[in-house]
Design brief:
Two copies of one chain form a homodimer. With about 250 residues, the first copy, chain A, is of the alpha+beta class. Helices cover about 20% and strands about 30% of the residues of chain A. The first copy, chain A, is built from five helices and eleven strands, in the order ββββαβββββααααββ. In chain A, strands 1, 2, 3, 4, 5, 6, 7, 8 and 9 form a nine-stranded mixed beta sheet that branches. In chain A, strand 7 and strand 8 form a beta hairpin. The longest helix of chain A has 15 residues, at about 165-180. Chain A is globular and about 60 Å long. The mean pLDDT of chain A is about 90. The interface of A and B includes residues 6, 9, 48 and 96 of A. The structure holds a DNA duplex (27 and 27 nucleotides).
Chain lengths: ~250, ~250
DNA sequence: TCAAAAGTGTTCGTAGTACACCCATGT
DNA sequence: ACATGGGTGTACTACGAACACTTTTGA
């Protein structure tokens, strides 16, 4: 009986988001894999779950390993679990995927299992989202899950993310978009407080539109119930100083 | 290195929903466990994932084992993955939780690992939902995940569902409620086609209100975009025969 | 013919959109 | 002073809620 029970490897895959205030761009962390499979391919940061470690603790350890950051307060939420057998080529592995929203853009250090670690700028291109770092570009897909996994074995190449990470990234973007109007946790990448303009910047990218296409007055009226005023104002650019807001704690 | 990697058991937990047209009640399947741990406790149907079996295939096998039903067409969707170490008492096990919406209420047969299998009527009681079968009652919780798992080790009793199934059920109800207005897959338990009254019956229960509190005229206007007319009318009760609708295929 | 249930239509209030106008700062 | 961006206010529109009214069946 025990033999037919499979005990596959449990991989924690983490999509780590942050925000670059200097360029007002959303960033996603990718690492270059040091080992096979997919050696030298870019991938979402992963780690194996260890004994006596919860998924949350594994996520925390992953962040510490990959970017040398020990956060006291940060937000991680479960995305989904990916179990399709075609997602790995050799030994079977399930992926428990999480998303982490870092309140700042930390400098990176490539940790165990990676020869490089970089922030990729998150944007959009026609109908898909895109991660860019200099000449490197990775796009999300418009395929369905069935379509994607069917074609996956044939699409192995250096231009693609490792494993099914393109699909995981696609699901992540869709989830964030869906939650923008009622639980915009993605705004946590703006840190403790933010201006309405910064919030609109993020909304604009996920909605594949421009900042100016989102009217500030209307945005305030429709989303203010999600925010709390954070009193003081900042002063970084020309024009009238903006008020600061912070995310209203949910529930 | 390999030794520190944990390979916990992978449990597939399935919340199986159906609808009893005779009594117009929502039903959830529970089984009585044949083996330790939680021997003789009621629980959500579970199975271990086997080698060379995807989570979807395991779900299909579980339905076949528990209720002897081989469906060609049915809908299963992922709920979440539960990894808290406190969820099991002995060996650690992750739970990949899925929801299945059966298009009919099948007769049951207790399969392997269960001494009994019954449909429980789904209703609500004050602030919680409740599963009832004669003198048996199981409620959802209003605690947070942290609160729930902290108290879990102390709450083992025959009056409670096994493991953290109370929490899994709570998350499931919340998910269905959240999706009622944009992707009401729960309506699949009504079968291929349904009347607006039947749809309102389901909405009423999840919203913890009464059927008559949901105005038929307004319900049609606000939710018609989710449905397609299924032409003919049924004739089962007094009054004007109702039109039939079916769920609009998503995307 | 009356009750019950389904379907249609009308009014009203609220919430989102478009847009004009005022305010505060840097150059 | 003027350009830039933030903030306020107003008119218009759309959609959901409340509810009256009509239609179709069974008893």
């Amino acid at each position: 009986m025990a033999n037919i029970l499979e005990r596959p490897l449990i991989t924690i895959t983490n999509i780590i988001w942050s925000f670059d205030r200097a360029t007002q761009q959303i960033q996603v962390l990718l690492v270059k894999r040091a080992h096979a499979p997919f050696k030298d391919s870019w991938a979402l940061p992963e780690t194996f779950m260890r004994a006596n470690e919860s998924a949350d603790e594994a996520t925390l350890r992953l962040i510490k390993e990959k970017i040398g950051l020990t956060l006291t307060e940060f937000h991680t939420e479960q995305l989904a679990t990916f179990t399709d057998r075609r997602r790995t080529t050799d030994e079977r592995a399930l992926s428990l995927a999480y998303m982490t929203f870092l309140p700042e853009m930390s400098p990176l250090q490539a940790g165990y299992g990676a020869t490089d670690a970089r922030w990729f700028t998150f944007g959009f291109l026609k109908k898909t989202y895109q991660l860019s770092n200099q000449q490197l570009h990775f796009q999300t897909t418009n395929a369905t899950a069935d379509q994607y996994y069917q074609k996956l074995p044939a699409t192995k190449s250096a231009e693609q993310l490792a494993f099914d990470h393109q699909w995981i990234l696609t699901v992540a973007c869709q989830r964030i978009l869906n939650k923008l109007d009622y639980q915009p946790n993605i705004l946590m990448i703006l840190g403790a407080s933010f201006t309405l303009r910064e919030a609109r910047t993020i909304y604009a990218i996920f909605r594949k539109t421009t900042l100016n296409a989102i009217d500030n007055s209307n945005f305030k009226k429709t989303h203010q119930h999600l925010f709390l005023e954070a009193g003081t104002t900042s002063q970084l650019r020309v024009g009238r100083p903006a008020r600061l807001y912070r995310l209203k704690p949910q529930n």
